[in-house]
Amino acid sequence: MDALEIARWQFGITTVYHFMMVPLTIGLGLVVAVIQTLWFRTGKPEYLRMTKFWGKLFLINFIMGVATGIVQEFQFGMAWSQYSRFVGDVFGAPLALEALLAFFVESTFLGLWIFGWKQLKRGVHLACLWIAVIGSVFSAYFIIVANSWMQHPVGVTMINGRPVMTDAWAVFTNNTALVAVPHTLLGALGVAGAFLLGISWYHLWRRRKDGIDVVGSDGTLVVGEATIPGRDRGDYSVWLRSLRIGAVVAMISFAGTAVTGDLQGKLMFVQQPMKMAAAEAACHDGTGFSVLSVGNLGSTNCDDIKAVIEVPGILSFLAKGDFSTEVKGVNSLLGEYQAKYGTHVPNNPLYGDRAGQEIQYVPVMQVTYWGFRMMIGFGGLAALAALVALWVTRKGIVPQSTWLMRLAVLGILAPFGANAAGWIFTEMGRQPFVVAPNPDMNGIDQVFMFTAAAVSPGVSAGELLTSLIVLSAIYAVLLVVEVKLLVKYVRGGVASAMPELGRDMQGNDAKDDDAKDNDDDGGHRGTPDDVLAFAY
């Protein structure tokens, strides 16, 4: 057992798991804030229903994201202490701002939003949600600033072997971060869009399956009502509007990620050329983009890679914006990296048994190659599904086909896959560096750190394996909990987030008076029980 490899597996598993919650929290939070704004401006009851239903799912995902994110910070000190010492002077500022400013703003105002349905005026209540959502965006920004410094270190001076921040403005306006932030936020919106689309399709399909909505002889939909709480005509409007909002958001986000992704790719060709060469399996200098290449599993050797389908000029466009500039391949870059950073791991106690071993500058190519393509493929699939959904439902009718419904629900996973694949490609493509060297910053080139030196020297492989197994088991349980909660409230529909709908149908005189009071304020003010039901 190797402590470094186990530590990497642990950080990879917990980080990817945590990042399943992050884009849905950011994206769905923004969408819910817009929907509540529409309710505030129009007073239409369907927007209130949408706010409460999607807000309920947002809260479930938010708390799971908080619970799983805490582990990340402990790992820095416990499993990666040498890395923490190296980057601490730089990371201190953005991570402190994320925790003490962004997260506390986010959680405080989210709490006011959760429990303020009865106590706060509608405008103030809406402002609380927007502040919480903006806080989550700033939280993402500060985290990405820290991560981008690992990809492209700027604004520091090396003092006694450690980078010390001398230019905070350079760190916070790192061009890598300024492109990565909108790319990440747009990816989060893509997740939210597919989430709305898939769940809304399911509920519209279910209304037809239950015979509530029927298609007349003239091909138009006859919207009906059921005696079940929340299954009235307004319920139909909730799901149709949600589906269309989700589809539009998904398509816009894909277009945005394509633009920002192109900018990111051009930066990576300059800042981390080996990563992008490995992503294209470009072993030799040239202009061709690999549509399909094959090779041995786990290989980092270009002799094992064979291009099957290649399109000339496209690689040059991705890297330089033209179709003729030759792009350096892995073989050319390998010699440059070895000349700059050495051919063997330094003989330093930090590296333990790895000292003196040959450095593998080429990342595992099937991870970078297929990770890059899965990111684009899953994102494009989600956008195509959104376009098809808009066309199919243009008359307000969802087909009764069960397999189409299942495809729509499964489609929720596509942008999750795109986000995960993109981050796996970004992080594994940086290897063997945990802090990649900056090749174009006037003498800052010496600021880098090999991953082999980053792990805690006092932690054994057995201890890391134990924590890996325990954390994986806990996360598996949490995954079951989250999925069960989400499924429960998704199947329950709007009534699961608005118990007052069921009370309105019972005809209780006293509670009917409450309902009238609610109508006076657009349904904003409910009983204390309603607020607690929404929260818990």
List the helices and strands and how they pair.
Layout: H1 3-42, H2 45-78, H3 81-115, H4 122-151, E1 156-159, E2 162-165, H5 168-172, H6 175-209, E3 214-215, E4 221-222, H7 233-271, H8 273-279, E5 289-294, E6 306-311, H9 314-320, H10 330-341, H11 365-392, H12 402-410, H13 413-428, E7 433-435, E8 449-450, H14 461-492, H15 500-506, H16 509-520, H17 528-535
Helix pairs in contact: 1-2, 1-4, 1-6, 1-13, 1-14, 2-7, 2-14, 3-4, 4-6, 6-7, 6-11, 6-12, 6-13, 7-8, 7-11, 8-11, 11-13
Explained architecture:
Residues 507-523 have low confidence and may be disordered. This protein has 536 residues and is mainly alpha-helical. Helices cover 66% and strands 5% of the residues. The protein starts with a helix and ends with a helix. It contains 17 helices and eight strands. Strand 3 and strand 4 form a beta hairpin. A two-stranded antiparallel sheet has the order 1-2. The chain is globular, with a radius of gyration of 26 Å.
Strand-residue proportion: 5-15%
Residue share in helix: 55-70%
Strand order across the largest sheet: 1-2
Structural class: mainly alpha
Approximate shape: globular
Number of strands: 8
Distance between the termini: 44 Å
Main pleated-sheet profile:
2 strands, antiparallel
- Name the poorly predicted regions: 507-523
Mean pLDDT: 85
Return the string of H and E elements. Answer: HHHHEEHHEEHHEEHHHHHEEHHHH
Radius of gyration: 26 Å
Helical segment count: 17
Q: Work out the oligomeric state of the chains in this entry.
A: single chain
